[in-house]
Amino acid sequence: MAAAGLQPSTYDHYFDYVNIMHKYIEKYLGLTNAILDEVHVDAEAFQILLLDGPMEKVNLVLPPPMQLHPKTEIISPGTADLIDLIDELMARGSEYLDNPLVKPNYERFMSLWSAACTLKQLHRFTHHKQPRLFERPAGDGSNLKLTNSINPDGSMPLSVEWSFHRAWIRFLHFPALLQDTNRNLNDSIPKLYENARLLLEEEMASYPAEGLDDYPQDDTHPSYDMVNWMVESRDHIYDALSAAASLAFQPPRASTQAAMRGAPAQPALSRRGTLDLNLSAEHINRMLTAVIQVKRVMENSKVWKLITL
Q1: Torsion angles phi and psi, residue 281, rounded to 5
Q2: Does the structure show a pLDDT above 90 at 181?
Q3: Which of 27-31, 56-60, 112-116 has the least mean pLDDT?
Q4: Residue 64 near residue 90, CB atoms below 8 Å
Q5: How many CA atoms lie within 13 A of 224 on its CB side?
Q6: CA-CA distance, 301 to 306, in Å (whole number)?
Q7: I need a labelling partner for 113 at 20 to 30 A (CA). Which of 6, 201, 242, 243 fits?
Q8: Residue 139 has what pLDDT?
Q9: Which DSSP string corresponds to the chain?
Q10: Which of 108-112, 118-122, 147-151, 197-201 shows the lowest mean pLDDT across its residues?
């Protein structure tokens, strides 16, 4: 039975709208079969997570492409230790979130990693090849398709993205959908996610980084100097996170008391063994040093409020 307040025809219309959009994306945006298959598999995995619920905890265990796409991660020389550390922290997330002594520092550290990657995404939006809008879009998005003055490049993804935006807003205004496990979990959220991922894949393929994390910009644009804060802020965070990653792969120092007692020297640990030891509840809070460093640098800047929302 449909949830109270929504007739089945309303559901059918909405899901048809989302599914038609999906078919349009697959047919016209030029994505490879490999990408289409990868995203579909992730959407199915997302559906399983939703069915296992509860929904409010799903975001804590989402695989990386759902929570943070690997292509949006910060990449710089010497990032390997940091990537390995982040992967392990995400794998142990449930353990840390259940530990009240570790949870605050864990959440701060991961929020800074997410912030640095988010800044990279914002930087991508300033790519000089991104389509420019020269007028305000109409409420129904119609002039994105037809009016050259607003969309002179004739960018098709703009029209599709506008349709996705409308579908998402419409979904948020259907609260009863969240109570209908027969349709919501099986159809709407996974399909919306799949559409969003495909649009993201198309954008990242169309506007790639040059080198590592740099996106070419139009340095003649009047607002060029206004976007430098994104790169500078990301660099500050990256430096601090890298310092934490260095700590994670350094063996903890033996205590002075143990040395004075003549305790036997411990055998050298492997790289993996060192990481496991440092990520134990006894040692993981050492990484708070890096978080404090970032906070001191960032807390008076404009971006700090954006990061901590």
Answers
A1: -60, -25
A2: no
A3: 56-60
A4: yes
A5: 9
A6: 10
A7: 201
A8: 74
A9: -PPTT--HHHHHHHHHHHHHHHHHHHHHS---HHHHHHHHHHHHHHHHHHHH--GGGGGGS--HHHHS-GGGS---TT-HHHHHHHHHHHHTHHHHHT-TTTHHHHHHHHHHHHHHHHHHHHHHTT-TTS---SSPPPTTSTHHHH-TTT-TT--HHHHHHHHHHHHHHHHHT-GGGGG-TTTIIIIIHHHHHHHHHHHHHHHHHHSPPBTTTB----TTSTTGGGGHHHHHHHHHHHHHHHHHHHHHTSPPPPPHHHHHTTPPPPPPPPHHHHHHHHTSTTTGGGGHHHHHHHHHHHTTSHHHHHHT-
A10: 147-151
The amino acid occupying position 214 is D
**Domain boundary at 206, 239, 273, which?**
206
276 and 175 assigned to the same domain: no
Rg (CA), the chain: 23
- Measure the CA–CA gap between 245 and 79, rounded to whole angstroms: 9
Domain containing 24: what range?
1-67+131-206
Q: pLDDT band at residue 33, thresholds of 50, 70 and 90?
A: very high
Phi then psi for residue 73, to 5 deg, are: -70, 150
User: What pTM value is reported for the model?
Assistant: 0.72
pLDDT band for 229, please (50, 70, 90 cuts).
confident
Q: Give the alpha-carbon dihedral of 47, 49, 54, 55, to 10 degrees.
A: -60
234 CB neighbour count, 10 Å cutoff = 22
Q: What's the rounded Cα separation, in Å, for the pair 272 and 47? A: 33
Degrees, nearest 5: CA angle 258-264-268: 105
Q: In the block, which residue shows the tokens 């449930």?
A: 94
Q: CA torsion, points 196, 130, 153, 193, in degrees to nearest 10?
A: 0
Q: How many structural domains compose the chain?
A: 2
Alpha carbon distance 272, 249 (integer Å)? 8
Residues 110 and 135 reside in one and the same domain: no
